[in-house]
């Protein structure tokens, strides 16, 4: 606020006598004064009435003086009223002024025609009846104008004339003169046509009637004024005038006897008073108004002097403000010539004021922005204000600066737009900071949206504010499923208190707290996450980053399993080695002992028992050495198809008629470098286990295939080296292996068979043989459906690339379609999603059939359903595909399973011709099958 020591002069704005009398409400003082005058007039009238007929000396000069005074008073009154009309333009005021003009004109004519005044009989051809009729017309015309005024006036003065006020005044004057000429012609030239009003110095009956009518008009005017409220000042004094008018008529034309009697003189005195009442009030009010105006003018002059001083100081102060402002303030004409340039403008643009003033504004405008400046000046010229307009200007040294402009019209004292005033604020650094902030926000948003870790933001009460999209992959939830909810709804109850303790520690100042807590997945299983958390006091928010430990824990478990198997293998290998040494002594000496006791049957029998036990021990150590990968192998390049067929022949009598053996061999199967005897034994062991899992019979499938295990599969199985393998799969339709026993099936001496029906070394021996041969073994099993054991043997080197291998090494082709992956194993699902996305597809995922159907109903753009065949729950992959086809007949389906294609089809789970991609598969196989399924 601008503060000064100037004293403000308050000029009175009262309007008690400064407004027009025709609109100013009458005060009690006005009414009292008017009533006093009427009272005095009434008393004098009452005193004069009895003596009205007394004859007095004729004095013609009295008539002349009376008429002259009357005319002057009426004309001045009319002029004052017309001057008010020129401002107020009310019809009522014009009619009243016209009435006064009429009385003045009538008084002039009456004096000219009065006998003995200017000629013995009067001028204008008058006779003895002329002045009498003129008196009646005169005293009847004015009341008519007063009646019209009373009915036209309102509280605000009444209706107003829309045309020119001067024309209305001219019309009024011309009208009065015209009417008076016509009436004068009638009462002079045509006087013989008029009734006689005065005969032999006395009144006729017609005279009495005319006088009574004229007196009644005056009385009607008085009554109308009384009832037309509210009364203005002029209304009150018009009522006084009409009272005097009534007394004038009564004394001059009713109660008197002849001219120059007491009533004649007294009536004209009343008439003269009637003419001066309103005039006196108008003159008094004008004098008061003039005095008030003079006082007001003096005060205004004093106020003007104070204002000049005040605004001079303000102007100087504003000048100081402009010069000291941090923003550039520039004024310019509408054609762009600079007229003002403050210190800040010098600093911002590099031009001194002397250099800039008088120059076009284009000196600071880049070439590509000059049209913009012309547009701004045109808009300002149209009285438009431009606010917060961001643009670019150029300094004297050529450097561009970002500015925000506020441009306003610059007006002269009369309001004409003469230029523009511009405030330019340098936002170069601010814009750079905004851009830097925008990039940081964008980067953080991208990190937030693409992070594979789970990012959570909560308020101080643990309610989720933000949740990263990675929650869908990690917990199977959408961010909106968590936002607004408390974290307690998702944290495992056993980890809830630990999480609360960590949040409290963060609020106490501990930063980057690391802890583990389990959250519930959408499908109900627990997900362990390692959390890094911190607290921001300014925004009152907790920030958490959670890394899914599921894959890490699985890898650690697998690594521990490998270590365990290696440790057990070393132990069993050492025991078997030492035990072999013992057996070597036993088997080496038992022959000697047998020869020594050959003639003693009872000792020979004991020797035979010892020899059989030693043989069984040798077989046991052989199995142990196989598991420990320390058995002597004799690998050679073999045809796996031929060996598998030979094994199938040997198995027929062993397995029995209730089990059907179905070889499914790839024609161009690669040769493998392997010990054929050990491989045959491994197939036999797997077949015997399959037989035991099918006590009521079933189907055994023996299959060979060429397989490439890629880096993705190797990353999920640390003991696998990526490369080409020959797969031999042994699949059954038996009872399957319970999930909780899957991790123990290769442990030595572990068996689910009854006591005495197995050593528990069969699968462990196969495991050891395969690992010792540089291969890989994998079991796929679904309880109640069967088991498939897949042996991956390294392809023999030194052979030419086959047609199959060339096909697998062909360029990988992807696509842009949307694919829904349904897989209950979280690790496998994550691997598949990654591979499919890398091929360019859009990937959606579900852990079971129920989740998949929800996604299918919600998203009509899904092109392919890629589902595991065997899944837990009420619906397997085949049933899911059927239900999906019912809801979406156009939806294509590709199945996958740990079983081989032949095993699945012949187990009756899929129809012949249905597309199946057997696990594991390489990226090229996945790409090929996806395109085949989408094209089909």
TrEMBL record:
Signal peptide: none annotated. It catalyses: ATP + protein L-histidine = ADP + protein N-phospho-L-histidine. Residues 314-369, 440-510 form the PAS domain. Its EC number is 2.7.13.3. One of its GO terms (molecular function) is kinase activity. PROSITE patterns: HIS_KIN, PAC, PAS, RESPONSE_REGULATORY. SUPFAM superfamilies: ATPase domain of HSP90 chaperone/DNA topoisomerase II/histidine kinase, CheY-like, Homodimeric domain of signal transducing histidine kinase, PYP-like sensor domain (PAS domain). InterPro entries: CheY-like_superfamily, HATPase_C_sf, HATPase_dom, His_kinase_dom, HisK_dim/P_dom, HisK_dim/P_sf, MASE4, PAC. The keyword Cytoplasm does not apply. Residues 387-439 form the PAC domain. The chain crosses the membrane at residues 33-57, 63-81, 93-112, 132-152, 168-186, 206-227, 236-258. PANTHER family: HISTIDINE KINASE, SENSOR HISTIDINE KINASE. This is histidine kinase.
